[in-house]
Design brief:
The protein is an alpha/beta fold and 701 residues long. The chain has 3 domains: 128 residues, Sandwich (Immunoglobulin-like), CATH 2.60.40; 368 residues, Alpha-Beta Barrel (TIM Barrel); 102 residues, Golgi alpha-mannosidase II (Immunoglobulin-like), CATH 2.60.40. The protein is built from 14 helices and 30 strands. Strand 17 and strand 18 form a beta hairpin. Helix 9 packs across helix 10, helix 9 runs antiparallel to helix 12 and helix 12 packs parallel to helix 13.
């Protein structure tokens, strides 16, 4: 190709074109203009289209192709803010997986910004009507970080707080209206004050990749609110910005980091918004459909059926990270968010998909190997949702040793125990001490298990103790959607009630769940709003509800304020202890363990648990002593009683001059951890449905 390439009417623009660089991919500015580079296997021509601010096409250039099917061009005089897109020429043969169409405008897979929100449209392709497709935006990476660096939270101190950008601040009247529900609302001083008062260390932010809502939701008057439907892996979503999504996102990160708060992104690399057969062709499908996605084979097992996209996500397609260029896209995206956007880590949605290769899930997959060897990505926090709906999709405990994993077994065990189900004490004990049956001792850190009671996709904690079944009628699917196995209870009335006794039980059960979570070994994950009684009125799948059902209320009742106070005090106690979150046992060490912490389990009668006790079918209470072996080390005694009756628990004997002091009693409803820090020597009454935490102290303290 000649150095000077074809350009349209020069009167409409100042541009001229010449040979560009092929790597890095994307739109890369320099002092003279911009390098544009894309990858497309199977195309025989790729055109760059430039647009003015009104989205009128003003220039069009064919790109030069390099062996390996990278395409590039350099356009002189392009400045930041320039709008662009691509048209790709090639065969349109859907039966062979080829969806090239030069009339269809495509989003750059490496676009760092998009000019507006992408909405769905009825036909799969835009053809000549490019107004339906958002335009990619050329940006520069300049930003004043003001010397703020990443917090680098120690593993055993991390407390994850899950938030949705809009839900968190949309109804907070202390935040300026224009910032509510935005990136700048999440980092507003009023929001930061809340995080600091609560005591969390890390925000896990629900998806911020640019996304598209499904067309079918529009007919119900609904929208994809959670954002697990990306059209691009680099560009932050414009719904959450006032003017400039990239710089406002960076500002949010900077302000959170300045207060010592980590930013962990919930990311979706398992599928895209292009869906399956007849789905949108917005980007990857138009550049290289049959390689960026996976397909099911024909009945003969020898050929792919290109009309049958693999659907391991339940969203219509599956990104093929077994393909080098798809793997590169994901890794380049992750590295961009860490280096340019300064995030601290990632929670991977349906992470099993990312490591599924030709022969299924592979714990030594190319994805895992690439992350491990990467000098940037190997140093960030990686959290797996260790399942998907594909073959062999449940892989809890199967991820590399440096990953954390969301532990649904912890969730189910704690919910079941506190609901009053019998015979669970053995499983409960295992979950409280880091689920070492799943995460192997001496190989996985005690922090590996991400412990949670509630996540965004399920009941809130208030609903967990108020509803026995899901109430998802507002989602338009006759309440068939959402998880049906919730291990919840309503204690006499389904939903909200004025019954004082029922409400007292519900509040106490929330305190039990919260205390159990923060006294457990592992990394605690806490759903925003659960500290102040947020309800979704029984909807456990509110992915399509952009309204007050999901927006947190800041008009707190007296009970809400007390629950917040209790939660913050439990977190404070955890952070002040050396044992909770960093237990070190002699047979459970990664480093040398000359001094190890001791654990002893007790039957409530004061006897050490025997084999028969662990399997008792009627058991609903258990106690455990935790102590540091070092002289004057911490010593704690925890009693958990999920039964509907009071019990008397005999305490371990102490040396002369020592006593057990009450630190937590979830019967206390004042917002404090306990009404009275009394010293106790031999036995204690444990009320129905309650947690008691005792600390060994000198008699005179």
């Amino acid at each position: 190709m000649e150095d000077k390439l074809l350009e349209l009417d020069k009167k409409k623009h100042p541009f001229s074109a010449s040979r560009g660089q092929f790597l890095p991919l994307g739109a890369i500015l320099d002092k003279e203009g911009c390098h544009f580079s894309v990858y497309s296997l199977g195309a025989y021509r790729v055109d760059l289209c430039l647009f003015d601010k009104h989205e009128n096409e003003i220039a069009n250039y064919p790109l030069e192709v390099k062996q390996g099917k990278m395409w590039s061009i350099f356009v002189d005089q392009v400045k930041k803010g320039q709008l662009y897109g691509y048209r790709v020429y090639g065969d349109y043969q859907p039966e062979n997986g080829l969806l090239f169409n030069q009339n269809n405008l495509l989003i750059d897979p490496y676009a760092r910004a998009l000019n507006r929100v992408q909405h769905n449209f009825a036909q799969a392709q835009s053809d000549d009507d490019h107004s339906q497709v958002v335009k990619s935006v050329v940006i520069d990476n300049s930003f004043d970080w003001k010397g703020v660096t990443k917090p680098n939270i120690p593993e055993h101190e991390r407390i994850i707080y899950e938030v949705h950008v809009k839900s968190f601040s949309q109804r907070n009247k202390k935040i300026p209206l224009e910032k509510r529900g935005k990136y700048l609302g999440l980092s507003h001083p009023e929001s930061i004050k809340h995080y600091k008062a609560l005591g969390i260390t890390s925000l896990q932010i629900m998806p911020v990749f640019s996304f598209v809502s499904e067309l079918r939701l529009k007919s119900f008057g609904l929208t994809n609110y959670w954002g697990y439907n990306p059209i691009n892996f680099f560009a932050p979503e414009n719904r959450y910005s006032q003017f400039d999504a990239v710089n406002e996102f960076k500002t949010m990160v900077r302000e959170l980091h300045a207060e010592g708060i980590e930013v962990i992104l919930d990311v979706v690399y398992n599928h895209s918004a292009e869906a399956g057969n007849n789905g949108l062709i917005l980007s990857l499908k138009g550049f290289d459909n049959r390689n960026y996605y996976t397909f099911e084979k024909e009945v003969d097992g020898n050929h792919f059926n290109y009309s049958n996209y693999s659907n391991h996500s339940g969203c219509g397609n599956t990104i093929n990270l077994d393909y080098p260029w798809a793997l590169k896209l994901a890794l380049d995206s992750l590295r961009y968010w860490v280096t340019e956007m300064q995030v601290d880590g990632f929670r991977f949605d349906l992470a099993v998909t990312l490591a599924r290769e030709a022969n299924g899930f592979n714990k030594h997959s190319a994805f895992f190997k690439a992350l491990l060897q990467d000098p940037v990505l190997s140093r960030v926090k990686l959290i797996a949702e260790p399942w998907d709906i594909g073959p062999g999709g449940y892989r809890l405990g199967g991820f590399p040793s440096d990953w954390l994993e969301c532990n649904d077994r912890y969730r189910d065990t704690l919910r079941s125990f506190w609901r009053g189900d019998t015979g669970n004490v053995g499983d409960l004990a295992t979950r409280l001490l880091g689920s070492r049956d799943v995460f192997a001792k001496s190989y996985r850190s005690i922090s590996t298990s991400v412990n949670y009671i509630c996540y965004h996709d399920g009941f809130t904690m208030d609903d967990l103790v108020s509803y026995e079944r899901r109430h998802n009628e507002a989602n338009g699917e006759k309440s068939r959607d959402g998880h049906g196995h919730n291990l919840s209870a309503n204690y006499g009335v389904e939903g909200q009630t004025d019954d004082v006794k029922i409400n007292q039980i519900r509040q106490q059960q929330k305190r039990n769940l919260i205390a159990s979570l923060f006294l457990s070994q592992g990394t605690p994950h806490f759903l925003s709003g659960d500290e102040m009684g947020h309800t979704q009125t029984g909807n456990n799948n509110a992915y399509c509800q952009d309204n007050i059902l999901t927006w947190l209320s800041w008009n707190l009742t007296d009970a809400d304020k007390k629950l917040f106070s209790f939660t913050s005090e439990v977190i404070k106690l955890r952070k002040e202890s050396h044992i909770f979150g960093s237990l070190s046992l002699s047979d459970d060490c990664i480093d040398r363990c000359e001094n190890s912490d001791l654990v002893q389990w007790y039957h409530p009668n004061g006897e050490i648990m025997e084999e028969i006790d662990w399997h008792a079918s009627n058991s609903q209470a258990i106690a455990v002593e935790l102590r540091e072996e070092k002289q004057l080390g911490e010593r704690w005694f925890i009693i958990l009683n999920s039964s509907s009756y009071h019990i008397t628990c005999n305490l371990p004997s102490l040396e002369v001059g020592l006593a057990w002091k009450m630190k937590i009693n979830t019967v206390c409803s004042s917002g404090k951890l306990t009404d009275e820090e009394a010293n106790i020597t031999d036995a204690i009454q444990v009320k129905a449905r309650s947690v008691i935490l005792l600390k060994c102290v000198r008699h005179l303290t």
